[in-house]
Write a structure and sequence with these properties.
Blueprint: H1 11-18, E1 25-28, H2 35-43, E2 49-54, H3 57-66, E3 74-78, H4 84-88, E4 93-99, H5 104-108, H6 134-140, H7 143-154, H8 159-171, H9 178-189, H10 201-211, H11 214-224, E5 229-239, H12 242-254, E6 258-260, H13 270-275, E7 283-289
Parallel strand pairs: 1-2, 1-4, 2-3, 4-5
Antiparallel strand pairs: 5-7, 6-7
Helix pairs in contact: 1-2, 7-8, 7-10, 8-9, 11-12
The structure holds S-adenosylmethionine.
S-adenosylmethionine binds next to helix 2 and strand 2.
């Protein structure tokens, strides 16, 4: 197993969009390995502060060491970002960054069970606030409901035969590992061919999104943000698939608290795409907090 460090996507572009100011207070909803957080701390001067969240205890443990030098300018919370208000405890911030999805260390850890590239238990939970594993989910859902999850969150047209194949494997006692899940998909869509994307990609994405309620988390975060950001403060969201991007686009456009800055989403340039293939699907949207009615 190669353990890739997490390469931060749109590092400078996202921090340029956030425009950290000296002495500002910022919320990083998705700490990961701390790439964006470090850059915000660097750009916001000796009095700038970041409150950073991650639901994954491994992310917090790694950053506690690597960013220890920033002392109490960095405040860490193990929380799902839908509960950002708890971490802020009444404070308002000058800007918010959310770099959604999973990190490379999460994908590369076989014990997390997130990838068909590594054999491990069929878990997929990002943090210990998530109760149900992917294995438990596929056992609990009836065929139709499982097919709906695979169709909706994976945009997978062969969702029904894949759901049946998964259920058959459960009956045969062969659905406990990521390899079992990949095999169940490959039995329907064919075995991976060299140089082609693995046909199990969409099903893995769908189950990961469902296990972690990723879209619900995003909707609840976006609903909470207007009351957490100061007037003139900025929100920067980087998403990695169309389902997330659609939610970000519509919420920022339809919520009167936001003035959208990015008419079109910003994407990594060619050089970043070459260097970091994971970045290729990234889309960044930015908005500024308007004054509340009645405010100057
Ligand atoms: C793409 S990585 C962030 C990388 C980070 N920007 C960096 O520079 O290293 C996404 C991180 O967000 C976390 N995450 C995803 N969804 C979350 C949620 N709903 N609440 C809290 N953390 C979440 C994941 O555990 C992961 O560590």
């Amino acid at each position: 197993m190669s353990d890739r460090p997490h390469e931060t996507v749109l590092l400078d572009v996202a921090c340029d969009a956030l425009m950290p100011r000296a002495g500002g207070l910022y919320l990083d909803c998705t700490l990961g390995r701390g790439g964006h957080t470090r850059e915000i701390l660097e750009r916001s001067g000796p009095d700038g502060r970041v409150i950073a969240l991650d639901r994954d205890p491994a992310a917090l443990a790694a950053v506690r060491e690597s960013l220890a030098g920033y002392g109490d300018r960095l405040e860490l919370h193990q929380l799902p970002f839908s509960r950002a208000a708890e971490a802020l405890a009444g404070r308002k911030v000058d800007g918010v960054l959310a770099d959604l999805g999973v990190s490379s260390p999460q994908l590369d850890d076989p014990e997390r069970g997130m990838s068909f590239r590594h054999e491990g238990p069929l878990d997929m939970r990002m943090g210990d606030d998530v109760e149900e594993t992917a294995y438990e989910l596929v056992r609990r859902l009836k065929d139709d409901a499982l097919a709906d999850v695979i169709y909706e969150y994976g945009e997978e047209r062969a969702s029904r035969p894949i759901a049946r194949s998964i259920k058959r494997a459960i009956d045969e006692g062969a659905m406990e590992t990521t390899k079992h899940l990949a095999d169940a998909v490959h039995r329907v869509l064919g075995w991976p061919r060299f140089g082609k994307p693995d046909t199990a990609t969409r099903t893995f994405q769908a189950l990961r999104i469902a296990v972690n309620d990723e879209l619900g988390e995003l909707e609840r975060l976006l609903a909470a943000l207007p009351s957490l950001v100061k007037e003139g403060g900025r929100v920067v969201v980087i998403s990695f698939h169309s389902l997330e991007d659609r939610i970000v686009k519509h919420t920022l456009r339809d919520e009167p608290a936001w003035q959208v800055v990015t008419k079109k989403p910003v994407e990594p340039d060619e050089a970043e795409g070459e260097r970091n293939p994971r970045s290729r699907s990234a889309k960044m949207r930015v908005a500024v907090r308007r004054a509340e009615e009645g405010e100057q």
